[in-house]
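Researcher: I've got a protein sequence and the SMILES for adenosine-5'-triphosphate. Could you write out the 3D structure of the bound complex as structure tokens? I'd like something to compare against our soaking experiments later this week.
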Amino acid sequence: MRVYFRYAVKETLSNLWRNRMMTIAAVLTVAVSLSLVGSALLLKQSAAQASSQWQQGTRVTIWMEPTASAGEIANVQTQLHNLPIVKHCQFRTQAQDYVEMKKTLPPSEANVLHEDQIPTKFSCVPTVPLDAFTVQSTFMHQPGILTVTAPEQQIREMNHVIRILQIVFLALALVLLLSATVLILNTIRMAIFARRREVSVMKLVGATNWFIRIPYITEGFIQGLLGSAVAIAAVTALHIWYPLHNEFQLSTSALIGTNIVVLIVGVVIGSVGSSIAIRRFLDV
Amino acid sequence: MIRFENVSKTYKNGSPALKDITLNIEKGEFVFLVGASGSGKTTFLRLLLREELPDKGRILEAGRELTELSKFRVPFLRRNIGCVFQDFRLLPNKTVFENVAFALEVIGRPRSTVESQVPLILDLVGLSDKSKSLPGELSGGEQQRVAVARAFVNRPLILLADEPTGNLDPANSESIMALLERINRTGTTVVMATHDKALVDRMRRRVIELDKGEMIRDQVRGVYGIDESVAI
Ligand SMILES: Nc1ncnc2c1ncn2[C@@H]1O[C@H](COP(=O)(O)OP(=O)(O)OP(=O)(O)O)[C@@H](O)[C@H]1O
Ligand SMILES: [Mg+2]
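Model: Sure. Here is the predicted complex with adenosine-5'-triphosphate in place.
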């Protein structure tokens, strides 16, 4: 066993060194494709995190016409009060909003505003975030109401964009993973070709199939492993330095999970590439 | 040690290479396999190495039935068989010592075995002083002796040789022949395919002659051709 271990390590390292250019190409392709896989996964988790955060605070805002009568405002208020899908509402008067706007806007713009130009509004939190739409359609065309806005639409659009990005990332990653597998397959094929004399002598003197195969399998395995290591470094760097991190506050466990997936995929394509090469080119 | 029962072999493309061969080779025998080019000598040896399987018949070798042997067990069969070829088949970037040691290393023999056995066998073939040379630095005869050392270092039950003197001058042929005889005297069964008439005639060992795949002669103390005037 120890004899074999030494032999396999020596053989694998010398194969990797002999084909170092191809090895580098294969490792880099694995790294790039796995970085894409990792980023796509992080993006998906960020998006899920973000939309759940936004939905927590989903508010429907019912804007009254600036000219709405007190009766109309009271009517809307009772309706909101009686609606079971509305948790609670806050009525904001023109005066309250005016004060707030003066604080947020630069003085040059704030000075142009007059208190009676600002619409009164109800800011409501629905019991379930998705009910925001129902509240919106209920009040949309009632008298005295200017418009009803819900951030639901924005969330959907954001999710849509993220999903498209993710599909693009994954499609690219898939193509690259395929070429990485082919590159690994090719380096193993070259290693086998360089060793064909040794292999034929080994077969002749009765080396077992696994004894002959294992150095080539570990070669592919190591290429996959190196590729994933580079990709993990890239994904982790992205997680630490990219602003998405601060905004969405992805947990460390999400990052670790993503890196585990990256590692497994890398090792799998390394092993698959070398297995195919062995089956096709190492006739034992 | 070796038993053929009605063995026939036809390659996928062409004419039959062996036709209905039945024979028995005992442990410790020395057998010459003779016949014109294309008569099936190499095919005979390839069947014994289980590089090919017969289409018909059974082959028993070293207590195993080759037609029943699973692929998984073939390496263990081959550990009982040494093999020498016309073209030596040494590894050019390994030294003489490493070439011989390789045969033990790749079947998982411990380093201590390698270190004790390789010098012994190099001594037997008379190449102790060349153990650090590369094959390219040796004469053809010396290279073939390294090949014999590699084939015999694991003490196989059977030694197969396919025209081992085919590339050598008479003097070197003699030394290889002497080596094979010496190995045979240790109880190893030797089967040697050859075109070397002088050698076969002088040795007076068992001769099996093939002709277009058929066994036309099996003679206990034979010569290369039984009737010279007809054979030519
Ligand atoms: N791998 C192969 N595929 C197809 N046909 C083969 C193969 N090897 C040998 N043959 C055919 O089988 C027949 C026997 O060939 P074999 O090599 O056994 O002859 P041989 O006696 O060793 O000849 P030589 O003295 O020239 O080495 C020949 O007709 C040859 O063409
Ligand atoms: Mg031949």
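Model: The mean pLDDT of chain A is 82. The two ends of chain A are 21 Å apart (CA to CA).
Researcher: Great, I'll pass this along to the crystallography team.
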